[in-house]
């Protein structure tokens, strides 16, 4: 079966599965991940570029949508977002170190589990480079499914348990939708839908993500396909135009690109992770999956407590920060659906860059230390 057919089949079945509701909860777009894992296990694959294009499109759209409110939100709580992003990754790294010490599994495998639990592809790349051991990819594939689904369900369940007035909290944030719809008024509009400014943001973002910053001992850091487009999207969304060129983008255009990008990313990541998944679990046992669960749950629960009890953030802002700290784009998609607004993306966008840098540094640090 060719890649195009796999893409179409995975999306069809995934969206049908995502519509199934159990006690009011549903997987939504993340249903595609489960279908992709199953198909990947049976040898179905898609071109790697599909996952990368999907991820780049999703985060670019998120950045442009969040841009109009990002600057104000970041100024208001910059230190809080920096702390939350850093604490999330540090807690995950500490859990990883404890597991290595107590279980005796290899550092490379544990780092793969950590990056799967945090759904961080840049972190996995750093782990592979630092350890030189391909088993890190195996650990990533084992922890990744719960890393996605755990956070997706968390952001749906918490507002219900806490009886959060989601509508009121979203109203307090201010909605970026209207600003995104009308940005760039008075400038030269190249075409009506907004594909041109999106293409500009995507190109600049991919270029920025590819810039490598030397860190010594042969190591290098880059923002990658996820970080570069996000930052450029935020900047262009905030500015509204480049010189006389309008960056006005229709809300419907951004929502469509965001959803399609997320779907492509999930099906690409899922089919990759599904390959060899069962074989590795047979060799090492389900304990590896349990380790991954711990690396997802402990940072997520602890950071939510810090955000709510210590920093006094609203529930939706706290959850947006957790999505950013866990570097979870699928969870952000789910949170946007829960909120009924893109406003929650601002907290994600403020926390994500910090978490991205920290997860790469943590992988390199653990590899050297252990």
Task: Describe the structure using short key phrases.
single chain; 370 residues; mainly alpha; two-stranded antiparallel sheet; 16 helices; 76% helix; 3% strand; globular
How would you summarize what this structure contains?
The chain is an all-alpha fold and 370 residues long. Helices cover 76% and strands 3% of the residues.
Kindly name the structural category: mainly alpha
Strand adjacency order, main sheet: 1-2
How many helices in DSSP terms?
A: 16
Overall shape: it is globular
SSE order: HHHHHHHHHEEHEEHHHHHH
- Rg over CA atoms: 20 Å
Characterize the structure shown.
Helix 6 packs parallel to helix 15 (329-339). The chain is built from 16 helices and 4 strands. It has helices at 3-18, 31-41, 48-103, 107-117, 121-131, 135-161, 166-173, 177-182, 195-210, 224-239, 251-274, 277-284, 287-310, 315-325, 329-339, 345-369, and strands at 213-216, 219-221, 241-242, 245-246. A hairpin with a 2-residue loop joins strand 1 and strand 2. With 370 residues, the protein is mainly α.
